[in-house]
Specification:
single chain; Rossmann fold; 3-stranded parallel beta sheet; 24% strand
Length: 75
């Protein structure tokens, strides 16, 4: 909820989101952020490759699999 409240008063150019956010979902947060500012670049960062299929169904700009590597960021 803090992220949404922040986004309502501040332009978010890039949001790096985990998919599992405790009681919430990174997919839901992605959708909410894009409703507020459709030009937000969303990057999903997760340890679960299976989520990549769902991530690409969103309007996310990218998907990086943990553990984060220099090569993964460059791609």
């Amino acid at each position: 909820m803090e992220a949404i409240e922040y986004a309502k008063t501040n332009r978010i150019d890039l949001a790096i989101l985990d998919i599992e956010l405790g009681t919430s979902s990174g997919f839901d947060l992605c959708s909410d952020l894009l409703k507020i500012y459709p030009f937000t670049n969303i990057l999903f960062l997760t340890a679960y490759a299976d989520y990549s299929f769902d991530a690409w169904k969103t309007e996310a700009s990218g998907f990086i699999l943990k553990p984060l590597t220099h090569e993964g960021v460059k791609e």
